[in-house]
Structure formats: C-alpha cells, structure tokens
Amino acid sequence: MLKFILRRFGSSFLVLLGASLLLFILTINSGDPLKDLRESNADNREFLIEQRIDYMGLDQPWYTRYWDWLTGVGKCVIGQCDLGTNRSGQQVIDLLGLAASSTLRLVVLATVIAMVFGVLIGILTAIRQYSGIDYVVTFLTFLFFSLPVFWAAVLLKEYLAIGFNDWLSNPDPGFSWPTIIAVGLILGLALQAMLAGSARRRLFTFLGTFAFTCVVLPYLDWLNFARYPQMPPVVLLLVGVAAAVGATVLGAGLKNRRVLYAGLVTAGLGMVAYYATYNLLWDPNWLVILILAVVALGVAVLVGRLMGGYSKVAATIVTVFTAVIMGGLTIVGHLFRSWPGYLDIVGRPIATIGSQTPNFSGTFWEDFLDKGTQLLLPTILLALISLASYSRYTRASMLEVSQQDYIRTARAKGLNERQVILKHAFRNSLIPITTIMAFDFAGLIGGAVITEQVFGWQGMGNLFRVGLEQVDPAPVMAFFLVTGTAAVLFNLLADVLYAVLDPRIRV
C-alpha cells in the first residue's frame, strides 16, 4: 500500500504540473491585461501601465513567469508560499486565504448535508423500490439535478429570503389555517409513504401526522415562536432519548440492553451538561466550544467502552451519536435565546447577498446567527444539486448488492432485515459512493463559481472569475493550486478507502 501511495503521489505530481502549465498558457493568451489602461484618459496612464507590467511581470517571457510561479509554489514545502501578486499589487496568498476560508465554510456544510441525506434517501428508495415514494423521490432528485443554478438561486431568494423576511416583519407572524392544513397534508402523505406498511397503518400514520401538525403549528403561533423561539429542557431530553433509542435500533437492536442503557446514560449526562455549562455558554468563544466538544465526545466514548460489554464498538457509536445530538441541541437552545436580539440588530435576517453583514457587532451567538443566515441559501442550493447524485448512486448500488448471493445467504441464516441492510448490503455498496464523495467535494470547491457570483460570496469562484476577466494568471493559478490538489488528494483517498471498505480489494 505504501508503494502504491508513493506511485500515486508521483503520477499526481506530473498531472498537476502538466495541467498547471496548460492553464497558465491559456490564461495569459486569453486577452490583453493592459486593455483597460490603454483605453484610459488618465494623466498618469503611462505610469499605471508600467506599474502593472512590473506587478504582473509582463516584460518577461511566459516561461520565466511560469517558472517564477512554480518556484513560489515549491516554497510551500518549507512554509513560505509565494504565489506572486495580482495586477493591483496585492499578495495572492492573502487573497487565497480569505477566499478559501469563505468557500470551505460553504462547501463543507453543503457536502455533509447532501451526503447524509442523499445516502439515507438512497437506502430508503432502494428498500421501497417501485413504490410511490420511490417514484416521487426519483422525480424530485432529477428535478433538482436539472435545475439551472442561477434560476434556482433566484427562486430561493424570492421565497426563502424575501418572502420569509416579509412574513417575519409582521408584529405577530403566524400561519393561516389553509397553510396549516396544506402542511399537515404534505407531511402526512410523506410520512406514511416512508413508513409504509398495511393500508390501516398508513391511514393511522397519515391521520396522526395531520392532527399533530394542526395542533403544534397553532400552538407555536400562540407562543409567537417565529420571533421568540424557545426549547424547553424536556424537549432536549426527549430528543436525546429518541436519538439513543433510534441509534440502538439501527446499530445493535433493542434486545442489546447494554448498548441501549449506554445511550440513555449519555442522554442523561447531556441534560446535566446543559445546566452545568449554561453560564459558560452565555457568550463563549470558539476555543470554549472546541474544548467542550472534545470533553463531550471523550465522555461519550468512555461511557460506551465501560457499559458496552461485548458490544463496545456498537455502544460507542450510539453514545457518540447521542452526544452529538445533545450537543447540537444545546447550541440550538442558545441560538434560540439570542434570536430576538439578533432580529433587533438586522431586522430582515435571511440575507440574499454576501457572506456576512458588514461591520456587524453583537455577541458570539448573534455573530453565529449572522454568518449562519448568510450561509443558508447557497448551502441549500449546493446541497440540493449534490443530493440527487448521492441518492441515485446509493439506490443503484444498494439494488445491485441486494441481488448478490451473500445477501440471500444472510437472510437464509436468519439475520434480521436491519443487519442484512446495514451490515451487509450497505457496507458493500459504499465503494461507488466513496468515489462520488471524493470527486464531489473537490468539484464543489471549484464548481461554486456561479453560486458565489449569484449570492455575492468573495470565495474561490470569485477569485477565479476575476482573474480570468482581468487576464491575470496569479489568482487563476492560485485557484487551480487548491482545487487541483484537492481533486488529486481526494481521488487518492478514495482509492485507499476501497481497501478499508472491502478487504478483498488489494493493490
């Protein structure tokens, strides 16, 4: 495996070298970098032309300029990267740092959301093959995949930003009864399709969901939840217990009491931590959040190892999952507490452009809300587009694996359907999904150009676009350095993970 990785690194280096040379030549020959100055009537036009020639090295042959860039990249090995300057004299390494942090903040979240929900939807549609939900999900995934990015972005701005902000601007925003009935019908139909079962069970599921919606939404209106959201501790406890039970059902089965008790103990410890850290999390910083997260995960692992018995691995997975859910809900509780103050500052919370409010001043949680609401629309857009690929590949892979002999053997041995699907079918269907994950993450880093343009994000896409428009190779090559390296490394990671997922695969 070590020899394989070293060979791949060598071949990847040659691919990046050749691609960088080609991109550099194409960029510098795509136009005239002095065109705007040649047409200028400024008195100091000649000085500006000479200054730009000096910044961009236009007085040197192309191979010297490329070698200077390549030499600067080589200095990254010793931590002294020199990616040159753009045509305005700004250091590209500084621009790259700001752009990369902005894009990664967007891409990582969108990829994780698309991956988790796409895989879950793919498993569900594979299990419910040719059912109503399979046809509906298939239609929606192809619809999302086919949507033009710019058009979908406009729709999101209109309905999830402008429409929501207008609704929230009312002194007492609430749901009308036609809206409540429509939401109840949609949720009822969706849930009964997912849970399936006999006609009687489907009817009870639909009626229960519809009745629950018709009770909860008016109650939230009465609380004025949209402007003053709140999450009582009992809700935190119930969700934590539900997470522990659900994870136990999927991972080990309810008959494994050790795993179940470990998850329930973790939920109880999460409630204790909620009260113990309330003042500490009133206005924290990222270091405090990180320390508390590490401690929470460490305690969850310890509980799983101590209480799991012969099922230590399964118990640890359940306790870590429960701890993550409890920690996330604790953060949501503090965000709810800060929401009214944030509304007083910004007025219209869901932004349509930019990655953060300029000169924003507020508490840690208010700043978190500001960046989170700015992130909402582009994240939804990228996640919807990627979700289609994950769900379709997962479905196709699961259906192919389910026809194999070892799946029939597992069922013949008496294993329950949970074990057959999760431990046998799903693991062996992960190989093509791993390939998609690797390429999708690298592709999103470089492929968010249109999304960043529509939503006004100063990220990698904007850096690439501006460099091309200005015939400036330095920003374009910086974009290539990040996206090209990411594509190569994630492709290599996917190849290594193949052997981890399937022991039959060897170099």
Global outline: globular
Structural category: mainly alpha
Distance N terminus to C terminus? 6 Å
Query: Helical stretch count?
Result: 20
Q: How many strands appear in the DSSP assignment?
A: 0
| Estimated share of beta-strand residues | under 5%
Largest sheet at a glance?
Answer: none
Helix coverage percent: over 70%
The overall pLDDT, averaged over residues, is 86
| Structural Rg | 27 Å
What's the helix-strand series?
HHHHHHHHHHHHHHHHHHHH
Indicate the low-confidence ranges by residue numbers. none
Brief synopsis:
This protein has 507 residues and is mainly alpha-helical. 77% of the residues lie in helices and 0% in strands.
Textual characterization of the structure:
The protein is mainly α and 507 residues long. 77% of the residues lie in helices and 0% in strands. It is built from 20 helices and no strands. It has helices spanning 2-28, 35-38, 45-56, 62-74, 92-127, 132-146, 149-168, 177-195, 199-223, 233-251, 257-276, 286-307, 312-346, 364-401, 405-412, 417-428, 430-447, 449-455, 460-469, 473-501. Helix 5 (92-127) crosses helix 14 and helix 8 runs antiparallel to helix 9. The radius of gyration is 27 Å and the shape is globular. The mean pLDDT is 86.
